[in-house]
Amino acid sequence: MVNHTDHPGGANMHEEMRRAFALLSGKWKLEIMWLLSQRVHRFGELRKAIPGITQHMLTSQLRELEADGLISRTVFAEVPPRVDYAITEKALGLGPTMEALTLWWEKYGKSIVPKPGARGRKAKARSENGAA
Description:
One of its GO terms (biological process) is regulation of DNA-templated transcription. Residues 15-113 form the HTH hxlR-type domain. The chain is mainly alpha-helical. Helices cover 52% and strands 11% of the residues. The chain has a domain at 27-110: Arc Repressor Mutant, subunit A. The chain is globular and about 45 Å long.
């Protein structure tokens, strides 16, 4: 069996993959990147497109993705200010991975049991008010 953990030159591939996973970890990062791979979005558009995400969490995830060079943020000097978010060339390199995930989902997605709806204060408030 071939060892894929260590590479010539002393690189520990397990540690390198942990770094890669850390870039993409977070409940919303992959969804944000998938949306931005489709087109440029504004903050409000992203918030509406991702049910359950809070403004604080979206801001946090966008900042992390920008700091890691996976998305870009462009501020336009307008009144009111306009901010666009786009995927970067670096993140476009993940395209084959996203395509593989799409193909996997098309093949196996129907066999995955859906998880229960949202949890937390907002979900509780909706259920108490009779909303689904």
